[in-house]
């Protein structure tokens, strides 16, 4: 029997990013209405930290109000809802009504997202919490292996610029949560873990743990969370160790993960969550134009196949492929 063959699917990075984004938000929008925490029947594991006694001290930014749908431009400013959507009236702008999914993004303080990259709102920014995604002032995500879990960064940027280009992408940011299909939580959990998971003396608690405590306080106080119990929220925790202290409190939300290996099945499962791929790190072969019939290898693993808890899967795949 001839060896199995696989067709190579080569996508530019931009196209792959759009594909992942569309899958995440379409899946979240569909799952928010059909899944509830009680469905699994498993007990909820105790949270490593008790957040219930913590006072709520994070300010809430109210959403723009209006009878018609109100959408945000690339700088986070609401279009004029009285004009029947200014975005739809301007050439070269996305008509949000054509979007497959409408997403509300919490205007959380920068310490949860771009502040972790050293960004701060410029003076005279009117208290804005987002960088100008079209002005070239967006900080870069750190390189190296950090890039593996950078989906949190790219999804946030994609949403911030979602209404600035026509035609609409798969998901468009809206100003009023009542118009949204899903609620996006812009917390760079993987970056927080990679950079701030260890306490710096004389502090007893790491910055990552502190941010997770603040995140839980913030979310459970929001009317959007109370309205759905968090089932329509999307939280990116792609690094396996990220969101370690808050995951048991936020488990009703849709998690975007790299695997389920370190999660209790009551907290994360195929019933409600999504596995997003790592960002491509290996160098791409130059002039790789071989067709389907010229590719005899089914799978090729680059690097070590023995990695912590996932040792069995790649080893078995290699053995089966060899046979």
Automatic annotation (TrEMBL):
Example GO molecular function term? glycosyltransferase activity
> A Pfam family name for this chain?
Exostosin_GT47
- Point to the regions of Basic and acidic residues compositional bias: 71-80
Give the record's membrane topology. Single-pass type II membrane protein
- Family matches, as InterPro entries: Exostosin, Exostosin_GT47
Family membership: Belongs to the glycosyltransferase 47 family.
Q: What is this protein called?
A: Exostosin GT47 domain-containing protein
Q: Which organism is it from?
A: Triticum turgidum subsp. durum (Durum wheat)
Its taxonomic path starts at: Eukaryota, Viridiplantae, Streptophyta, Embryophyta, Tracheophyta
